[in-house]
Specification:
This protein has helices at 26-33, 39-56, 64-81, 89-116. With 117 residues, the protein is mainly α. The radius of gyration is 18 Å and the shape is globular. The termini are far apart. 18% of the residues are buried.
């Protein structure tokens, strides 16, 4: 007699939970990991990136290219506000999201001005 045991399903990758294929976002993580900060700051920056990414994931398109572009903008925003003493994840996240909003608004204003000219 053969005993069949139930198979265990692997837990989904956190990225799969929000409908994005694993492997996307590698460039953004590489950008963050390559920053010249100490270990505590890099941990905080990485965590802030991950939390912000999940929060804004549904606002920046559905194609892999749009998603990757948004992740790169988010990584650049976080790195633009981080300093060596930045270990407050909530402050990094809020600052990066604010920087993205300001960048978005300024690009909209520039496009509007060019359209008027």
């Amino acid at each position: 007699m053969t005993l069949l045991l139930p198979t265990r399903r692997r837990a989904p990758h956190p990225v799969e939970c929000i409908g994005v294929r694993p492997g996307l976002g590698v460039k953004a993580h590489r950008l963050i990991d390559g920053a010249t900060f100490g270990p505590a700051t890099l941990r905080a920056v990485g965590q802030a990136f991950d939390e912000a990414r999940v929060q804004i994931a549904s606002h920046f398109g559905n194609t892999p290219l749009e998603i990757e572009s948004a992740r790169m903008r988010l990584a650049e925003a976080i790195l633009s506000i981080a300093t060596e003493d930045s270990t407050d994840v909530a402050a990094l996240k809020a600052g990066a999201l604010q920087a993205m909003v300001m960048d978005y608004r300024s690009s909209c204003i520039q496009h509007t001005v060019k359209d008027v000219e």
